[in-house]
Design goal:
The chain is built from 4 helices and 5 strands. The protein is α+β, with helices and mostly antiparallel strands. The protein has a 5-stranded antiparallel sheet. The relative contact order is 0.17.
């Protein structure tokens, strides 16, 4: 419970200060209606690299390249080599019109399930943050009331 409270506080504070608070709702809405809220794009792959080679975790990696539409530099978490064809020099992408986030366009439904799990877990942590705050306020209020009668 303590770890969840710390994680939810950490995630919520970072997202508030980075301007990404509740962006998950926009991404879920985009995935539910891809034809309306998603734009197809592609990126020229410059390189791929593992995320944690020290632990031998070669399953998780990032792809780095440039968008074909405007030439911007982009880095995407591919997480599993089965989600894309590494023999291609150009990787098809989906861009959310609502949030501006990029996702790999693939026929592998496990990728989209993984994205949904991440989005819902992030929303869970942000909701749990309010439970933590309300518990802290309640505990502080009870403490101050009891403290008042001690003095």
């Amino acid at each position: 419970m303590l770890v969840l409270g710390i994680a939810s506080t950490f995630v919520t504070v970072i997202d508030v200060f980075s301007g990404k608070y509740l962006r998950e709702f926009q991404n879920i809405r985009s995935f539910r209606n891809k034809s309306l809220y998603m734009i197809e794009d592609s990126m020229t792959i410059e390189k791929t690299h593992g995320r944690n080679a020290a632990l031998g975790d070669q399953e998780r990696f990032d792809i780095i390249g440039y968008l074909n539409s405007n030439g911007n530099y982009i880095k995407i978490n591919a997480s599993d080599p089965n989600f894309l064809d590494l023999s291609l020099k150009s990787q098809p992408l989906l861009k959310s019109k609502l949030s501006g986030d990029f996702f790999i366009k693939t026929n592998n439904q496990n990728y989209y399930k993984e994205i949904y799990r991440g989005l819902y877990f992030s929303l869970f942590l942000k909701c749990f943050f309010f439970i933590v705050i309300s518990c802290l306020i309640t505990s502080l209020t009870k403490y101050l009331r009891n403290r008042k009668y001690i003095l």
